[in-house]
Design goal:
This protein has 137 residues and is α/β, with parallel strands linked by helices. Helix content is 18%, strand content 35%. Strand 7 and strand 8 form a beta hairpin. It holds the Pfam family Glyoxalase.
Length: 137
């Protein structure tokens, strides 16, 4: 397997809903494992997600989990997930789905550096940046 870098998101009990939402946005195969799957059946958190992976058909990988018992949930703020490329239709489609029900801080629009760019926070509190470059030709 080639080394890769991908985001790993933490959630406060709604990892299943969030990862299913990202599957709707990006497509692909979603694998979810609960705390109950790994030796804690019957525990109050047994149905919470211990580890989830979304492998999208375009090569994107997104991982996430509910905050483990005994650890404090720390909402994000020092990171953003960035989507960038030249496929205007694909990236605008992601933008529409991610920003729906969330908060747009920078509308998706042409910027001074020449690209179309926007920033939003989805309904699960995850900040996203979308940058659409002009095709290199």
């Amino acid at each position: 397997m080639v080394s890769r870098l991908n985001p790993y998101l933490s959630f406060d009990g709604d990892a299943r809903q969030a990862m299913e939402f990202y599957k709707e946005v990006f497509g692909g195969e979603l694998t979810l494992h609960t705390f109950g799957d790994f030796g804690q059946p019957g525990a109050p958190e047994s149905d919470k997600i211990m580890h989830g992976t979304l492998e999208a058909p375009n090569g994107f990988t997104l991982m996430g989990a509910d905050t483990p018992p005994g650890m404090e949930y720390q909402p994000g703020g020092s990171f953003s997930v960035s989507l960038s490329g030249e496929d205007d239709t694909e990236l605008r489609g992601y933008w529409e789905k991610l920003s729906a029900g969330g908060t747009v801080s920078v509308p998706l629009d042409k910027q001074m550096w020449g690209d179309v760019f926007g920033m939003c926070t989805d309904r699960f509190g995850v900040p996203w940046m979308v940058n659409i470059s002009e095709p290199q030709g």
